[in-house]
Task: structure prediction
Amino acid sequence: MTETIRTDTSTTSTDTAQLRQTLGDLVVASHRLTRLAARVTGSAESPATWRTLSVLQSVGPMRLGELASQSRVAQPTMTKLVRNLVESEWVKRIADVDDARAWQIAITPKGADALQDWRDTLSAALVPMFADLRDDELAAMRATVEIIASRVDLSNAASAALDGR
Result:
C-alpha cells in the first residue's frame, strides 16, 4: 500500500504580507549595512565602480548600454566610468563576437583582485559589529545568504534564458 503525501504550497494573504515586509526590511537593512561598511572603510571609489565590477564578474562581458542598465547608471555615466576603469586596468574592451563594430566590457584579473580586496575590506570593517554573534545566529546569517544567493542565481538564469543568452 502506498500513501500519497500532499504538501500545501499555497500561502495566505497574511503569509504574503509577512514575506513582503520581511523582504523589504532585508533590502533596507542590506543597503544600510553596505553604506555603513563603505563609510567605515573610507573608500574613495564610487559605489558604481564596485557595482559595475561585480556585475561584470557575475554576468560576464557585455556591451556598454547593457552594463549601464545592469549597474543602474545612465549610459554617459557608464562611458566615463568605463574609461576610468580601463585606465586603472580593472576592465578591458574586447571585440563583440556578434557585431564586429561593437565592443564588450570585461573585468580583468586586476579588476577582480581589486573587487575582492574591497569586499575583504568591507567585511573586515564589519567584523567588530558582529563578533559577538552566537553560533546559531551566525548559522542563520549563513543560511539567509545561501537562500538569497540561490534566488538571485535563479532569477539571473531566468533572465538569461529570456534574453537568449
Summary: The CA atoms of residues 3 and 9 lie 19 Å apart. The beta strands are 91-96, 99-107. The chain has six helices and two strands.
